[in-house]
Amino acid sequence: MELVTRTLCRAAFAALPLSFSVGALAADHLVVVVSASSNAPKLTGEQVSAIFLGSVKSFPNGDKAIPIDQTAGSPAYGQFYSQVAGRSEAQIKAYWSRMVFTGKGAPPQEAGDAGAVKKLVASNPNLVGYIDAAQVDGSVKVLAEIK
Question: Which keywords does the record carry (predicted)?
Answer without folding.
Answer: Signal
